[in-house]
Amino acid sequence: MPSACDPKNAVVLLDTREHTPEHEHAVHLKLAAGLAQLLGCAVVQPAQPPSSADNYYYLPTETLIGPDRHAAMGIRTEQDMFGGLVSHPYMATKAISHPLPANASFPPGWTDAFAQQASDALLRGYTVFSKADARRAAQLLLLEGPLRLKPVLACAGRGQQVITQLDELDPLLANIDDHELALWGLVLEEDLSDVQTFSVGQVSVAGLTCSYHGTQQLTHDHQGIEVYGGSELVVVRGGYQDLLQLALEDHLRLAINQAITYEQAAEQHFPGFIASRRNYDIARGNNPQGHLRSGVLEQSWRLGGASSAELLALQAFAADPALQRVRASTHEVFGTPDLPADATLFYQGNDSELGQLSKFARIREHDHSE
Known about the structure:
The protein is 24% helix and 34% strand. Helix 1 runs parallel beside helix 9 (307-319). It has helices spanning 22-39, 67-71, 113-117, 131-142, 169-173, 178-184, 240-243, 250-269, 307-319, and strands spanning 10-14, 42-43, 56-60, 64-65, 84-86, 125-128, 147-151, 161-163, 186-190, 193-205, 208-220, 226-237, 274-275, 277-286, 292-300, 323-334, 344-351, 355-368. The strands form four sheets. The chain has an eight-stranded antiparallel sheet, sandwiched between helices. The protein has nine helices and 18 strands. The protein is α+β, with helices and mostly antiparallel strands. The protein has three domains: 10-87; 93-122 and 124-191, ATP-grasp fold, A domain (Dna Ligase, domain 1); 194-368, 2-Layer Sandwich (D-amino Acid Aminotransferase, Chain A, domain 1).
């Protein structure tokens, strides 16, 4: 169904990464084709660097950094891409989720105002951009219990370490490049036990907006390592307020409201920030004192593991104006499973890095308005 907005000439997959695994590239191409269907155009891979005159819609593989540079390509509003755009590198990562310790060093564009406004939506922790500040932040956090050291560029919890005493920190810091640390930052955060992680998100494409809450599943890869296995989403037509109209358990309502608080702080304090794909991970667990804590771990203003389910939901809403709610899911399965009859396959093959892998999405439980 073509967009009611300014029509686009084509969809362009904008892969800005040094290396993209085969299975991810296949998913990106399938997402690009689905977005093109929604927008009523084709997918192209231009021979020349694109300009704003081309009137393309972009699917970036990462959060874009630098509004001026991307405006020249025609990315000025959220109608121009599936993803997000920020003005400084640290804004694209979980580094924004915490304030600095007192008198710490910080990169260009840093503001503590974000963490101040979003404080009710955050766990206890600090972001640092130097090793000396990391030590000071660790001393403060360890007074109340173990802390979790979180590299900001890692995905799916990879590279995280739990520290119970200060002398465990220096060997971990020794592996971190000072220049990279000064540019991107490092997060130190209270370590929770019995953690549940919820996803809250919103996507807007072709004049359609839908919002969701959901959970993530884990699976085991061919090496027996626990990795992301998919997402289960409840998706409604409309914005976060439409999502809040659902009958929700208290902890889910809190998670959605924390995501809203976090997003509003970003919109207020990050000049140049735009996003048509917004996803937030919210953790709920117990701190060392046994108190229940809930807070946004990080944002994803780019395509992600749940985007195939987001796409199926958008397509369902576009095809049926009376449809108000769906349940959509993504699945990543190692080996060769029997696919459900209603599966939309995004990748199936023997990936050179991960081995035999299937990625598919499903949509169920269509709820119509009365």
